[in-house]
Amino acid sequence: MDDAYLKSRMDDLDHVIGRIPAFLQPERPPVMKGLAGEILVCDNIAPSELAQLQAQGVVGIVTAAGSALSHSAILARSLHLPLIVNVPQLLSRIADGDVLIIDGADGSITVNPQADNLRDYRARLKEHAREQRELGRLRSKPSRTRDQVDIALLANAESLEDVTQAHALGAQGLGLYRTEFLFLQRNELPDEEEQFQTYRDAALGMSGRPVTIRTLDLGADKADRTGLTLSNEENPALGLRGVRLSLARPKVADTQLRAILRASAYGKLRVLVPMVSTREELLAVRRRMLKLTEQLRGEGHMVSDHVPLGAMIEVPAAALALESFIDLVDFLSIGTNDLVQYLLAADRNNEALGELYSPLHPASAARWPAMPG
Description:
This protein has helices spanning about 5-10, 10-25, 45-55, 70-80, 90-95, 115-135, 160-170, 190-205, 245-250, 250-265, 280-300, 315-320, 335-345, 360-365; strands spanning about 40, 60-65, 85, 100-105, 110, 155, 175, 210-215, 270-275, 310-315, 330-335. It is an alpha/beta fold. Helix 7 runs parallel beside helix 8, helix 8 (about 190-205) packs parallel to helix 10 (about 250-265) and helix 10 packs across helix 11. The longest helix is centred in the middle third of the chain and has 22 residues, at about 115-135. It is globular and about 70 Å long. It starts with a helix and ends in an 8-residue tail after the last helix. One of its GO terms (molecular function) is metal ion binding. It catalyses: L-histidyl-[protein] + phosphoenolpyruvate = N(pros)-phospho-L-histidyl-[protein] + pyruvate.
């Protein structure tokens, strides 16, 4: 394929094309059986397939393509499902029925290991389980540094299952609840009621602890069938995504904000706006929140008296010009993945640039002192 853009979107195209037969068939295709205890080896994996495969008993996945920073990788980590990606000539090196050891910690794969190697890894699994039990005893203890500074340990989540796990593990709140998975892998947009129930359940699931809900951060780099994104963008990382998409699709943004504001009556919800570049973007969101709050109360809905508004600092312009909009926000969140990507002109999904892409690069580290508390 000669087109550079289509080459960069091959994973998304493969996922969509692979799901077309399921939508053309009048009945749901049969679920693969006999996967319990198996390691799946394949070309690539879509985020929507991970939870289903884990529910069927798959204990690990190895793919020929993909990136450690992809949404599939992020979701696999949250599911505690070992996933090793970007393995060259994978399908020609591993045969059906081979015994595998995959080590998600260092990315290593052992094909048909010797008996002593198997014993070693089984011992490591037991030791890992013991360490997890030991860590479990620390859940109720305060998160405090040696110089007596308290630090809130917050969890990331992208599903209600994540929320349940975060609460069980003693997280002091959710620092980021991603909402994209409500919009992905479906033919229609989620309505206000569906979103409200999800955000409400997240708030209730954290039992009064703060929950930060990030507004929709979809762009052409995240395949969806809802028609929200500009699928022909030549450079989706610099395109219509985050708050830019929300402002370009006000009805979609209002539906989400109404759902969040309604859910705020059930817990300590905060709104986090992604991909902020200018003061005007935050002004527009704050004005919409005020107008929608008044509208909802007029309809008889309960809304919290104060729903904090925050900005994600992931565009270099925002990091350099904080003083121009700091008065409009209640908190900030540093989005290191995109901020480093934009500062270093290094695609975070490009494995060939792995050594260059680093939050500890001098250009990246130089931005952290500028961030107010």
